[in-house]
Amino acid sequence: MPETVLDTFEIKRLDILDARGNADPALMPPLGGAEIKKMYEYLAIARTFDDRALSMQREGRIGTYASIRGQEASQVGSALAFDKKDLIFPSYRESGVFIARDYPLHMLFQFWSGDERGMKVPGDINIFPICISVSTHLPHAAGAAAAAVYKKEKTAVAAYFGDGATSKGDFHEGMNLAGVFNAPAVFICQNNQYAISMPRSRQTAAKTIAQKAVAYGFKGIQVDGNDVFAVYRATKEAVENAKAGGGPTLIECYTYRLSDHTTADDASRYRSREEVEYWLARDPIARLRLYMEKQGLSGGKYEEEVREKAESLVDDGIKKMEETGPAEPQDMFTYTYQGPTARLSAQIRSFSPGAV
Ligand SMILES: Cc1ncc(C[n+]2csc(CCOP(=O)(O)OP(=O)(O)O)c2C)c(N)n1
Are residues 142 and 83 located together in one domain of the fold? Predict the structure, then answer.
C-alpha cells in the first residue's frame, strides 16, 4: 500500500523598496548604479509611451488601448531579469515588457492602431505576439518550456497575465503541465485588483494568487508589484531556479491599474476615488526616483535628460508609425500562424476571392 503523503506550505511576500524610497539593504538585489539607472530609464519610457498612447487614442490616431499605468515596475522589473534568449509570452497589457526588451516603439503603436505588422516580431527579440484572448497563451508557454527541457536548452519561458486570467481553464492547464514536466516556466501574474470591473475578491476565494502554485507542486511568491527591486529579485531567482532544473515559479505581482481597463472603459463607475488615491501614493516610478535621489544616482540634469530622451524616443515611434501607411485588411491574418489554416483561408477568400 502506498504511504499517505502530506505536505505543509507557506506563501512568502517580498518587499524591498517602500513608497518613501527606502530600500532594505539586506534584500537588495546586486544591481550597480548603471543598472538601476537603466531600469529607471525603461520605466520612464514605459510611462511616456503609455501617456502618449492614451492621448493618441483620444485623438483618433490609434484604436483601443490597454494602459499599464501603475504596473510599470511589475513589467520592467520582471522583464529585465530574463536573458535575451529567454522566451516571453505576453498578454495585451504588457507595453512595459516589450519596451524593456527594446521592441521597436513604432511597431507597438502599429499594433494598437490595428495594424498587425506591428506584431511581426523582429528575429532577435524573443517575445511572442500580444495575446488578446485571456490566458490562452499559458499552455503555449508551458509547452515551450517543456520543449526547452526536451531539447536540453537552458531557456526560461515567461507568461504574463492578470488576476482574471487565473479563473480560466487555460491557467490550470498551463500551470499543471509546467509542474508535471518540471518545465523552466515563470508565470507572472500582475494582480492589478480588477478584471475589467470584476474585483479580485470575486475572482477567487483564495487569500493570495501566489498560493495557487502549491496545488501544481511548485513555488509561489507574492511581491510588491510597485517595487521594482522586489519584482526583479523574485523574477531573477525564478529564472535561475528554472534554468538549474528547479522547475516553474508563480510570481504574484501585487499592484494596481491606475487607468481604466482600456480606453473603452470608465473605471470611475466601479471603484472609488479614495482607492485610486491610495495607490497613487504608491506609484512605482516615484519611489524609485526618491531612492535614486537618496543614493545620489540622479541630480543635476539627469531627470530632465531622461524625460527628454523618453519623449523623443516615443515621438520618433509615433512619427515612424504614421509614415508607414495603412495596412492591408488581410494583414490581420498574416502574422498569427506560419501559414493560414483552412478556416482562415476560407474567411480570406470570402472577402477577397482568389487571395489564398
Ligand atoms: C477568452 C477571453 N474572454 C474574455 C475576454 C474579454 N476580456 C478582455 S480583458 C478581460 C479581463 C481580464 O482581466 P485580467 O486577467 O485580470 O487582466 P487585466 O486586463 O486586468 O490586465 C476580459 C474578460 C477576452 N479577451 N478573452
Answer: yes
Residue 4: inside a domain:
no
Query: Are 49 and 186 part of one and the same domain?
Result: yes
Instruction: Find out whether the beta carbon of 69 lies less than 6 Å from any atom of ligand 1.
Output: no
Give the pLDDT confidence of 317-331 residue by residue, as tens digits. 999 999 998 888 777
Q: Which atom of ligand 1 is nearest to the CA of 261?
A: 19
Which residue is it, cell 521594482? 228
One DSSP character per residue, 156-209 reads -EEEEEETGGGGSHHHHHHHHHHHHTT--EEEEEEE-SEETTEEGGGT-SSS-S
Boundaries of domain holding 353: 328-356
71 domain-assigned:
yes
Percentage of residues in the chain having pLDDT higher than 70: 99
Which residue is closest in CA terms to ligand 1's atom 19? 195
Q: Are residues 284 and 356 in the same domain?
A: no
Strands 194-195 and 198-199: antiparallel
Minimal-distance CA residue to ligand 1 atom 13: 195
pTM of the model: 0.96
Sign of the torsion angle spanned by Cα atoms 335, 341, 344, 349: positive
Over the stretch 93-109, which tens digit does the pLDDT of each residue have?
Answer: 999 999 999 999 999 99
Structural domains in the chain (count): 2
Average pLDDT, the chain: 96
316 Cα distance to chain centroid: 23
Is 332 found in the same domain as 279? no
130 lines ligand 1 (CB under 6 A): no
Q: How far is the CA of 176 from the centre of ligand 1 (A)?
A: 21
Q: What is the reported pLDDT for 167?
A: 98
